[in-house]
From TrEMBL:
Pfam families: HpcH_HpaI. PANTHER family: HPCH_HPAI ALDOLASE_CITRATE LYASE DOMAIN-CONTAINING PROTEIN, LYASE BETA SUBUNIT, PUTATIVE (AFU_ORTHOLOGUE AFUA_4G13030)-RELATED. GO terms for molecular function: catalytic activity; magnesium ion binding. It comes from the Bacteria. GO terms for biological process: oxaloacetate metabolic process. It comes from Maribacter luteus. Residues 3-210 form the HpcH/HpaI aldolase/citrate lyase domain. This is HpcH/HpaI aldolase/citrate lyase domain-containing protein. Its cofactor is Mg(2+). Keywords: Magnesium, Metal-binding.
Length: 273
């Protein structure tokens, strides 16, 4: 699984050090992680961060006084500075999502939708929206979501919601990112989340601390036996004259069909010797 690492804007100076860990992607958080009064100061500090435009920005898009009213001034200011990667938080509805995506009107944008409100979640399951093609990833902001519902944040309460977020990602052919964990001292709980997310089929996970990344990065998702079998399948497929017209083949007593090849590629990509 890949990692999407949230870093508060107040700590963006630590990103250069964190890059040594080879974290996949950073998300600089200008929303919940800092005070509204600090945003303008750290807006300019981005100029001093090397490769800052490689990072995603989680940018508040609502009026402070009225959370149901859009305020895209900060988003537009980042766009004017040439930033093109964004995480969109606390969208209230599909209509609101369309309004925001219309502002992001270039093909060069990478946009992750953070689903944090029940209304948006239900509408995404039942409605279409005209700017779907602009999304590159989707994840569940599970703590905000559970807070609105008034439910305890635990995996069994999140089961159906996470599964549906994954289905949306697959239907839309975008990256499925699993929930962030606030458990920094409970390694067992975090590992349980990783195993559960991987077994469901998530591509990546939100993380908030270097120790979480180290656990995720050291995790062995596949056995050596699975890896060796994947190598064998890949070798056979590579020798086929036309892999696009793939017929089922029998390898070591297992029938391999076209849909199985996606898992084979995933094993070969993520296995750690």
């Amino acid at each position: 699984m890949e990692s999407f690492f949230f870093v508060p804007a107040t700590k963006m100076n630590k990103i250069q050090e964190l890059r040594k860990l080879k974290i996949n992607t950073f998300i600089i958080d200008f929303e919940d992680a800092i005070k509204a009064s600090q945003r303008s100061d750290f807006f300019f500090e981005l100029d001093n961060l090397e490769n800052s435009k490689d990072c995603y920005l989680r940018v508040p898009i609502h009026n402070l006084a009225n959370p149901k009213e859009l305020d895209l001034s900060l988003l537009k200011a980042f766009m004017d500075k040439g930033f093109s990667r964004y995480v969109l938080p606390k969208i209230n509805s599909v209509d609101e999502l369309d309004l925001v995506l219309k502002i992001l009107d270039h093909d060069s944008f990478d946009i992750i939708l953070l689903v944090e409100t029940p209304k948006l979640y239900l509408e995404l399951l039942s409605m279409t929206f005209e700017n779907l093609g602009k999304l590159t990833g989707i994840g569940l902001g599970s703590h905000d979501f559970m807070s609105i519902i008034g439910a305890k944040h635990q995996l069994d309460n999140l089961e159906i919601i996470r599964q549906n977020i994954l289905y949306l990602a697959r239907a839309w052919e975008i990256t499925a990112i699993d929930i962030a964990s606030m458990e920094l001292n409970n390694e067992t709980s975090f590992k349980k989340e990783i195993i559960d997310g991987h077994s469901k089929g998530f591509d990546a996970k939100f993380i908030i601390h270097p120790n979480q990344y180290k656990i995720l990065n050291s995790f062995q998702f596949y056995t050596e036996e699975e890896y060796l079998f994947a190598l064998k399948v890949d070798k056979v497929v590579s020798e086929l004259k036309n892999s696009k017209e793939f017929n089922p083949i029998l390898i070591d007593g297992k029938i391999i069909e076209q849909p199985h090849l996606n898992k084979i590629k995933k094993i070969l990509k993520n296995y750690r010797k």
